[in-house]
Amino acid sequence: MNELHLEIGAALVYAGIFILIFALGEIIRYLQPSCPELSRKFIHFAGGLTALTFPRHIQSHWSILCLATGFAAVLVLAKMKGLLRSVHGIERKSYGAMLFPVSVYLLFLLGQSRTILYFVSILVMTVSDTLAAVIGDRYGSIRYEVEGVTKSLEGSTVFFFVTFLCVHISLLLMTPTGRLESVLMAFVIAVLITAFEAVSPTGSDNFFVPLGTFFILGNMMKQPLPAMLNRIGILLAMMVATAILTAKIKLFKTTGLIGMILVNYAAWTLAGVTWFLPLLLGQILLYGLVAYFVDKVTEGITGYQIKFLFYAVLLPVLLIFAANALHARLTFFLPYVTSITTTLAIIGYFFLAILKPCQDEWLRCLARNRALSILCCAGLSVAGVCLIPIFFHGQAVIVSLFIVFGATSFALCLFHFLFQKMGLGLQIVLRQRVRLLCSLIAVALVFLLQEFAFSS
Q: DSSP assignment, residue 297?
């Protein structure tokens, strides 16, 4: 009972500290109304440093869940009511404030037995992000844009060096990691996480930066020195290969290209070649579709920025993280593959829906026959992405293919219905969200089907 009282007491103390931080943020906002980012970054920095001490004083993740849920609810209600201008009083659209407590809870839950991973991830999200924003805003002169949000090269450079120091010094002081290994890990993580931060839209860096740091560092700490050097070589090779593959048809702009490299590296290093293969085959199929349809459709289908990629790969990336966190790659593999096939099938179906009127007769016939186009798009996607990976995966190949094909076809039928019902032709962002929703439903369906098919 005494331990429970101490736990509740610690949680209440932390709640009081966070309330004080918000109050100080409001005072700063009142004193410096012309600098809305100042109060916002103060709360971010002070809140992050406070969260660093959680493992020392709180044992149960339920306590952190209560704190995170409570403050997330307060932030959402405050945004709806126009309150807490110290957090929400910025012109740009951002969900970073709401994602912050979510990330803290997930990191605490995942890092209960690996405090160093929790510590470094929170430290990078707190210190690197704050210093990069403050210095970039004050001294940044070389600007670039990510989906309407302006960032600076100077800020990204600061983020890189501070992240390197956060990882390197933490490993040296808190673990028996050797100096060379620590330098290599810090360098790779700084490169990757700086790229994550640079291309994260609408405050999503508060989610992807700490979770990316957690999983990449956790994976690298298990590797001997030769394996680390091999990982660096893989990263460089992926940069070159992805750039070459994209250059000819200019599928992605710079932000999209960086994002694709990050996703490729995450799939390879966190899940292995078996998981990377469907992603690679999916990219090749996507490039082929775009190259074939680029002159045959009424809408531009090249030059995508990070937002397109965000909606296309969000689900596969989350499934990679979940499979690693739960140590359940076998359970997550078919849903992961389905998240790729549904996205590609829907993209192919959309290309048929926006064909120019004077195209080949067989294409016009295919576009007019919706049932046939759904079957063709689903079949092409499954054949192009799944055949080889599922064969190597080795779990009931024929049954697995039927499950993925059925779920992909269902997602396409649902997208067709919503496409017609909601008039998604010109609503680009809504169309991408609907595509993500259809893929999510298909993934959930695969979880159910494989549980039924393989339970015996």
A: B
Q: Give the Cα separation of 10 and 59 in Å (integer).
A: 10
* pLDDT tens figures, 246-282: 666 677 777 777 778 888 887 887 788 888 889 889 9
Token pair belonging to 65: 């869940």
pLDDT tens for 34-83 read 676 777 788 888 888 888 888 888 888 888 888 888 888 877 787 777 67
Dist. CA 190–CA 174, nearest whole Å: 18
Phi-psi region of 82 (alpha: psi -120 to 50; beta: other; left: phi over 0): left
Find how far residue 71's CA is from the centre of its chain: 23
Is residue 173 packed enough to be buried (19+ CB in 10 Å), middle (13-18) or exposed (0-12)? exposed
Residue type, 74: V
373: closest CA among 423, 337, 409, 339? 409
- pTM exceeds 0.85 for this model: no
Beta-bridge mates of residue 152: 143
Residue 169, helix vs strand vs coil: helix
CA distance 39 to 29: 5
